[in-house]
Amino acid sequence: MLKTYRGSCHCGAVRFEADLDLEQASYRCNCSICRRTRFWPAVAREGAFRLLAGEGELTQYLFATRKNQHYFCRHCGVRAFGIGTETPIGRMYGVNLGCLTDVTDEELSRVPVTFVDGLHDRWQGAPAFSGHL
Questions:
Q1: Looking at per-residue confidence, does 30 or 101 come out higher?
Q2: Distance (Å, whole) CA 42 – CA 49
Q3: Residue 87 pLDDT > 80, yes or no?
Q4: Where are the domains of the chain?
Q5: Contact of 21 with 110, CB cutoff 8 Å
Q6: What is the CATH number of domain 3-120?
Q7: Nearest-5° Cα angle at 34, 76 to 131
Q8: What is the torsional sign of CA 96, 98, 102, 103?
Q9: Tens digit of pLDDT for each residue in 31-61?
Q10: Which pLDDT does position 50 carry in this prediction?
Q11: Residue 8 pairs with which residues in a beta bridge?
């Protein structure tokens, strides 16, 4: 069931809200950027993500295919969300669950996680090891 959640970077300069269904899969990926930043996204479809404050405080990082847009707060360095431009559902927002400010630890503990092997471009399969993700 969709519910509107609010979130922010660590320092609060970047604030957003997103309509998320936390009963649907979230993702943990072993690709180089997700592993290094410990990014844990839930998917918000186009129109279900709203940046409330801090657009000018964001730094964008593009790498490899330059398809996905990775955004970080230029003050605290937190990656609150990213934008996937070539996905099976079209443009979507990956909302970092660790940045939600109005979700309980109990709710987060129940969010299903799908592990993906982005390191080897096997997006439909899980990596051999995932406990560290």
A1: 101
A2: 11
A3: no
A4: 3-120
A5: no
A6: 2.170.150.70
A7: 115
A8: positive
A9: 888 889 999 999 999 999 999 999 999 999 9
A10: 98
A11: 15
For residue 8, give every residue at least 6 positions away whose Cβ sits within 8 Å of its Cβ, in sequence order, or none. Answer: 14, 15, 16, 80, 99, 101
- Extract the tokens encoding 47: 């129109």
Residue for token pair 């605290």: 76
Q: Collect all residues with Cβ–Cβ distance below 8 Å to 47 and sequence separation of at least 6.
A: none
- List the strands of the sheet with 58-61, edge to edge: 58-61, 69-73, 81-84, 92-96, 41-45, 26-29, 113-116
C-alpha to C-alpha distance for 95 and 49, rounded to whole angstroms:
8
Cβ atoms of 71 and 58 closer than 8 Å: yes
Q: Rg of the Cα trace of the chain? A: 14
- Distance (Å, whole) CA 49 – CA 67: 19
The pLDDT tens digits for 101-131 are: 999 999 999 999 999 888 887 778 888 888 8
Q: What residue type is 103 in one-letter code?
A: V
